[in-house]
Every structure is written in structure tokens, then in C-alpha cells.
Specification:
The protein is α+β, with helices and mostly antiparallel strands and about 260 residues long. It is about 40% helix and about 25% strand. It is built from 9 helices and 13 strands. It has a 5-stranded antiparallel sheet with strand order 1-2-9-4-7. A hairpin with a 2-residue loop joins strand 12 (about 235-240) and strand 13. The protein is elongated and about 60 Å long.
Length: about 260
Amino acid sequence: MAGKIAPSRIIRQVSRTHFALQMTVMTDPQQLKSLISESRWFAELPVEAIDRLANSARIKQYQDGEFVYLVGDTLENLFCIVEGKIRISLISVEGQKFLLTDLEKGQWFGEGAIAQQNTRVQEARAEEDSTILQIPRKLLIAVADDYPVLYKNLLFSHFYRTQAVYELLAGMVFYPLKSRLAARLLNLADKHGRETGDGIRLEVKMSQLEFAQMTMGSRQRVNKVLRDWVQRGILHKQKDFYVIADLERLEAEVEAQ
């Protein structure tokens, strides 16, 4: 497979109906400052800049299944996950969905708010009850204008995320469904795997439809691959959760043609 990007790296790099807010509250100012200052996005900013960001921030609650934003929504905020999980997806004009990644506690998203474009090109949905910190776009840009290092930090972050997406899409183009699905399962094992006597249990519920959306395959084809792995002892299910029984053989499936 010379000349190709390693698929295990490709698909492991990367992964919510409308905007529904249940409540808006302010948290302890010091907690907000700590949360913001710990982010690499705001590294090298002086205390005055962190204070401005924290004073403008709000905490909003989303229920499981509610959208933080949809494709086409106006760019109004930058986000950080205080608690919960947010799924980022691409949606085609025909309504087909491709799951990019799941973001969890402490991760920031929505950095496109710093750009000139004024609408979202992805959707973000809560995969469980979630608490999200939001910083208004106008304030973010004002701080960045005063402290250009913020532009640099967001540019680097956007570069790395874009590179990961390109690598992910390369895997979708150049590798067969079985390789893509195996790599996505390994990615889930990295993030949500728990060692048990039967193998690595994925502590996240995933339907065959979701696997299809993660791999750009049909539900029927994904089901066929999963059944093959179950029959061969690579994978099995415990109630609603998948268990990787043979990690080495699943890793070998990433390279299989």
C-alpha cells in the first residue's frame, strides 16, 4: 500500500430538529476564566483579554438530540463543551449525512466564527444532555483584533483540523468499506474502549445506520461486514454494545483489500 496514507491514521484522526436552548445561566467567573485560559486557542493572551472573554461567555443547556446549530445557520458563537458530547456532521443537499467526529468535555469547536463567511457548513448535535459554553462572535473578533496572537492560534487549530478532515476523506476515497469500518471501530476503541474479559467493549451505543454514516457505506453493506466479523470471532455484541474480541485481526482488516 505504498504511497497511501495509513488508514488507521486516516480515520482515527477524525468525527445534532433545530437550535434549542433550555436555559441560560452564568457560572462562577473564575471557573469561566480557568476554562478559557486552559485552551490552546487562548494561549499567550493577557489576563485582560481572558477577562473580556469570560465576562461575555454564557452557559447553555442542550438535551440529547438537540442541535447546537444546523447547516446554513448564522455564525454567532464559539463553543466549548463543559459536559456532554457533541457530534459534528456534514449534510449533502440530498440529506445524506457523514459523521465527522464526536467532541467531548473540554473540546472547543465553531472556530469558523472568526472568518468572514456568515453561515455554518456543518451541523452540531448533542449526543447526550450537554452543557456548552458560548462566546459571542463579535467579542471574539474584537479581542482578536486587539491581540492578533488569537488569530494565529485559531489559524493553526483550523489547519490541523482541516488536515485531519482531508486525511479522513482520503480514506473514504481510496480504501474499501471494510477498511474504513475497521478503522472507525479502532478509533472508537481508542476513545471509548474498556478492557473486559471478552475483549475491548465500546462504551458508546452505535447503530448500523450510524456506522454507515461514518463510513459512507450503505446500512446493508455495513451489516454484511459486521456479520462477517461476528462469524469470524473478531467482533460480537453485548446487548447494545459492540465488543472487539480480536484487536489484532481487526487491525489487519484495515489493510485488507
